[in-house]
Amino acid sequence: xxxxxxxxxxxxxxxxxxWYSFWERENYFAADHASPKPKFSIVIPPPNVTGSLHMGHxxxxxxxxxxxxxxxxxxxxxxxxxxxxxxSIAVHYVLDKQLEAEGKSRFDLGREQFLSLAWKWKAxxxxxxxxxxxxxxxxxxxxxxxxxxxxxxxxxxxEVFVRLYEEGLIYRGEYIVNWCPRCKTAISDLExxxxxxxxxxxxxxxxxxxxxxxxxxxxxRPETMLGDTAVAVHPEDDRYRxxxxxxxxxxxxxxxxxxIGDSFVDxxxxxxxxxxxxxxxxxxxxxxxxxxxxxxxxxxxSGRMTPGAGAFAGLDRFECRRRIVDQLASESLLAKTEExxxxxxxxxxxxxxxxxxxxxxxxxxxESLAKPAIAAVESGTVRFVPDSFKNRYFEWMxxxxxxxxxRQLWWGHQIPAWFCDACGDVLVQRDKPEACxxxxxxxxxxxxxxxxxxxxxxxxxxxxxxxxxxxxxKTFYPTDVLITGPDIIFFWVARMIMMGLxxxxxxxxxxxxxxxxxxxxxxxxMSKTKGNIIEPLQLVEEYGADAVRFTLSSMxxxxxxxxxxxxxxxxxxxxxxxxxxxxxxxLMNLDGSESHVSAEGIDELLRQKALSLPLExxxxxxxxxxVARGISDSLEKFRFHxxxxxxxxxxxxxxxxxxxxxxxxxxxxKEDPAGPRAERISILLHAMDYSLRLLHPFMPFITxxxxxxxxxxxxxxxxxxxxxxxxxxxxxxxARAMQVLFDLVLAVRSARTxxxxxxxxxxDARLTVAEPAxxxxxxxxxxxxxxxxxxxxxxxxxxxxxxSEDVFVLCGIWTQGEFALNxxxxxxxxxxxxxxxxxxxxLAAEIEKILRKVNNHEFRSRAPQxxxxxxRRRHAELLERMGRLEGLLxxxxxxxxxx
RNA sequence: GGGCGCCUAGCUCAGCUGGUAGAGCACUGCGAUCACACCGCAGGGGUCAUAGGUUCGAGUCCUAUGGCGCCCACCA
Length: 899
Prior knowledge:
Oligomer: single chain
Strand order of the largest sheet: 6-5-14-16
Helix content: 40-55%
Radius of gyration: 37 Å
Structural class: alpha/beta
Strand content: 15-25%
Number of helices: 29
Shape: elongated
């Protein structure tokens, strides 16, 4: 059969979807719990069902897929478990917006209707992101896809909740929490984002009862004064200590409140007097507990003033603030106003200002869970990559607070608790109870749901079937590695470690690779408001998934942010084209008689014919071996940028620039199909095959497409073996010899260009080889040198002719000797002299540097022997080179002496 | 206030355990030679933020300073 000639430029359109469905159809993504192979498992950081693929996802999924494809090709039983997170607040936010557009709120619908709307939305839009992931080429096991609100996962959540409650680790209580007045739910400390805001500091006069004096105190939130139940001063503050025990009249409310002493007050801040609003400030809440002060709630769950706010009842909190300031001013109770830069907490999801609020919530006691989780990281059972991220982890874990796990939302896991209003009993159990076991009274079901991160914490084992002891759970837990962003170390990573240790008795993963944040080319965070968002799918459409993947991988230095550059991506899209054209060239020159030879077959060839195989063949096999090892070493350490660079440099600058150039004459010769040509072609095809395997985890689509067009054995590249070290191919001598030849070619090319020779000039070259051992190698390779340096002829001479007596002109030196070209008088003597002098100067500088080292007896006595030897060797080499260079220069009239 | 990280070629960045400063892009010159102009060949460009220190030897380790960034805490 004759090979098809492929398109001149690589076009990923169409072919990516085709290969993706092929892989899926062939079931290559599926893991097998019964496989005898060693397992490698990863659970996906489940994207929100509300999500749409952004650069951060693209990065993470690319890195996952590189690892997963690499391990699969290495013969592991690989599970990459995909799924989505129900993201309760995010879904609420989306649906709230929709309802708002219709002039409604979720409360108009009621819980039941809202939930059916949510499920409907999930069915329609929840899978978008997973399909977007497919476009990137991710090889997840879709048959094991999970959703955090699946029946199985919901059972796991309920089970964990009940067990924790029964153990006394979950409790319910009334505390001050972060309340979002827009989402109308409590949120955890982690969900509060502090932002710097230029606000005001209002200084207000509180009249002292029984005196004509005032106390002046400062506040950023005057509306909360309506709920003040005390003012506080530092007990040792000489200005005010004698007032402690007295009272002030609370302005606007005409209520007397006590003056108390508490050492939390900072005497140096403002006037040193603090108003105490226990119901609306976390610090004041604590103070009130210490001093048994009453709490007066003046702001409700929507952020409006309550009846407790008297005349201000019903106003929005910010409107109330304005009114109060006006009124204070009109009553001469406003002493002054200052601009004040401070941090204000905002809801992570909807950006509303957080309102601290006292309410009844469920909490998880985390201290006993945190201890073993800290130990797991301290002992190295869980390793962070890069290591420095464990500091963040420790910092948070050592100061961990109880976790407020209840939310006043509807979409999520309902807390399995029932209350008896008759006797006040609280039941927490797996199944719904009929009636109160104590008084037979009616039961009221808890309406709160759990924080989304509660179910996420169970993800590594709930997705595998826990609490059932499923084969999947036994086979794939613990997983091998977690790849995620730095922003969810606390939200997710820490909590998974705690829950994994608690319920599986083992960590959920052994390594946590923290990737950077993808920024725009100017290092700015991408955001809708800045309008600098780069859509990964748009890039995929434009440049192909392979180019996008390779770009992300090549920039993924562990722990550092990625300034995504379109220029750079264009470069990698050019790389894809390069790979394509290398294949194109090979295919064009096959006649269809060639067949695939296995790696073992090539090894056998090497064993039998080692001495007669051409140097470049031995060299390319040696390099393939080294590069394969390098890529695996780098991937083992999550050094994706290094692995990418290895395959890129190898393929472009060794395979294409040297190897293909070297075998061009063989390839384009159609003779001798059964002889040495056949052997050489099989080595070429093998090198191509192995290069494609090495590249496949990074660029799965183009490599599959090419591989399928080349002679091959097997159904798909993605299930071929990833190249591993084959010691028989290791041949450092061949590599060194090749390097010497390259150097010669480079020296000749350089001389041609720098002396402004006509590129079409047909030149003959003569050269000397200093090292006798090298002479045979060079001799045998003269044809290669001739072709690569574009010479008409080249020959070795014992000594080069004097410039004056021949048309040959000494042109330069290379590692092994000198060379001359027949320039037939066309030489620019000045130009040649200048370039030789330039080379001499830089050589002299180098010699000088190394000489200082070698002459230093401290260096000789203290540096390791091999370093000293290496420097001596190098010094001798440079001196020899200098000798040759000066010899050349001496023949040029007008050359300076040069020292 | 506490902690972490960064500062290397015009730009964006590599340089892991100290031992001859690298890549991509950009730039300059040459080249339509039959895989690729999304290309080839050759070339220019760096006191590795600054100042000290350790070391035979520092981009790499230590200290300080300056600039930039991130995380945590969140004093009204």
